[in-house]
Each structure stands twice: as C-alpha cells, then as structure tokens.
C-alpha cells in the first residue's frame, strides 16, 4: 500500500531491482569457474610448484577482483536503466 503524506497525496512505491541479463550471468559463471580452478590449482602438490605459487593466486584475483564485479556491473552501451526515478512521476 502507498503511504499518504500530510497533504493527502499518495507516494508511489519504488521497486529496486538489479537488471542482470544473460550476459551478466555468463560472466558470473566464468568467474565461478575461474575461482574453482584457482582453488584446485592451490591444492596441487608440490606446495612450492608453479601452480600453487603463481597460477592459483592469479586465477583467484582474476575471479574475485575482476570478473565478479564485472559480471555485476556490466551493461551494454545502448541499454538504459529501467528503474523509474522519484522525479519521473511528477
């Protein structure tokens, strides 16, 4: 239900949603795969080998710090935000 102000006007309820598309979910899937591969590389023996010391941290950094934020924030250039603002109804 919409709340009424002192003057009797009704305020419209604002719905906030993340506009995630198929491309966003694909990027997040690649990020998850990268993170899993990073942990698998981290668990390899010998502990002083190339995979646990160099490849695993690069994969984990790429997954957590680059691909996950990119998957959340990515939007096509021509695409506009579909959430109405408070000023649009006035």
Structural commentary:
The protein is mainly alpha-helical. Helix 1 packs antiparallel against helix 2 (50-73). The protein contains two helices and no strands. It is elongated.
List keywords for this structure.
90 residues; mainly alpha; 50% helix; elongated
In short:
The chain has helices at about 20-40, 50-75. It has about 90 residues and is mainly alpha-helical.
pLDDT < 50 runs, ≥5 residues: none
Distance from first to last alpha carbon? 19 Å
Q: Tally the helices: what do you get?
A: 2
Task: Give the helix proportion (percent range).
Answer: 40-55%
- Largest sheet at a glance? none
Please report which band the strand proportion falls in: under 5%, 5-15%, 15-25%, 25-35%, 35-45% or over 45%: under 5%
Structural class of the helices, strands and pairings? Answer: mainly alpha
Q: Give the integer mean of the pLDDT values.
A: 85
H and E string: HH
Strands, total number = 0
State the shape: elongated
Write down the Rg: 22 Å
Topology:
Layout: H1 22-42, H2 50-73
Helix pairs in contact: 1-2
């Amino acid at each position: 239900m919409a709340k009424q102000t002192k003057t009797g006007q009704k305020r419209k309820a604002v719905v906030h949603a993340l506009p995630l598309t198929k491309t966003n979910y694909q990027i997040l899937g690649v990020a998850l795969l990268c993170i899993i591969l990073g942990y698998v590389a981290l668990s390899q023996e010998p502990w002083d080998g190339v995979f646990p010391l160099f490849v695993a941290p690069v994969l984990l950094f790429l997954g957590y710090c680059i691909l996950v934020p990119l998957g959340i924030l990515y939007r096509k250039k021509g695409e506009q935000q579909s959430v109405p603002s408070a000023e649009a109804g006035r």
